[in-house]
Amino acid sequence: MLDREPPLTLGASTEPTEPEAAAATGPVTAIAAPSVAEPLDAYSAAVIGALEQVGPAVVSVYVGGALEAERARGGAGSGVVVTPDGYLLTNEHVVQRVNEARVTFVDGRTVSAVVAGRDPSTDLAVLRAQAAALPYARLVPEQRLRPGQLVIAVGNPFGFESTVSAGVVSALGRSLRSRHGRLIESVVQHTAALNPGNSGGPLVDALGRVAGINTAIIAMAQGIGFAVPASTAQWVLTEILTQGRVRRAWLGIAARDRPLDLRLVRALGLASRHAVEVLSRESSGPAAASDLRAGDLIVAINGEAVDGTDALHRLLARVAPGSELTLQVVRRTQLLQVALTVREPPA
């Protein structure tokens, strides 16, 4: 007869006893359970590391005098020092009515600051803190953000200094209209929480590099914040430090968007069904010194199609004052070329 295995008993162990297991396999080595805290620790380390890099350079901006700064429970906004000699960036709307301010650092120091320059078209302003040996953050305009990338907002909402919120880049290349009607291009949309008082504070990456300057939120929305990109901030900073102002090309016209008749578009071989209609010319502007006339429809500049006033502003932002442009305009049913030399708008 075949030998049969003994029947199993429910609830009884079928594993070898400890002496048997030890004899069979040798010393037992404990296997560590996988740590569920590692992703959180890595995330926390990134946020903490970024804060340590940029935190000392973040300031509260007060638009009153010393007494008001001491009494205030919250600043007008935030800012970040970006040069060793004390130049800092903030939002233009934070200091729009003043030429002087006071800034308070996380170590408690409060120093006076003067407005070195402002650019309402990008909602950026440059201040100079009247102190030496100040901590500063790295502004890296050439860095390329990616949707989903970790970003950290540091600021002083409602006067709560060094408040940190983290999120991710939601989208790139957004457009945001400034108070003066111009579009701010390449705006960074992110999910880091922003509140009143965060305006002008930095949006930084995991390495503590300034990726943008926080500027706006959408009221009644959650997780939708906007920051002016570091590339724009660097350009404004350079213009103000080297030229004393932000220079932009000016045509000297009043204009509006105008749709074109499809038959006209086909007859003239135009690239777009929209143009910029010249409503009037400034008497002392560049347009008045050229053959450009009221009623002309601007369809291209230097061969680049212009399908509206926003496109016109974008193009002029890349042109240095003093440059000569060739405007392609439709006058009645004719396509004409008009030469025009742009210059800066009057102060």
What does this structure look like?
The protein has 347 residues and is α+β, with helices and mostly antiparallel strands. It folds into two domains: 41-129 and 137-246, Thrombin, subunit H (Beta Barrel), CATH 2.40.10.120; 253-341, Pdz3 Domain (Roll), CATH 2.30.42. It has six helices and 19 strands. The strands form three sheets. A six-stranded antiparallel β-barrel has the order 1-2-3-6-5-4. It has a six-stranded antiparallel β-barrel with strand order 8-9-10-13-12-11. The model is unreliable at 1-25 (pLDDT under 50).
Describe how the helices and strands are arranged:
Elements lengths: L17 H8 L12 H17 L3 E5 L3 H6 L5 E5 L5 E4 L9 E5 L5 E10 L4 E6 L8 E2 L10 E6 L7 E15 L5 E8 L11 E3 L4 E9 L7 E5 H14 L9 E7 L2 H7 L5 E8 L15 E5 L2 E2 L3 H9 L6 E8 L2 E8 L6
Parallel strand pairs: 7-12
Antiparallel strand pairs: 1-2, 1-4, 2-3, 3-6, 4-5, 5-6, 8-9, 8-11, 9-10, 10-13, 11-12, 12-13, 14-15, 15-16, 16-17, 16-18, 18-19
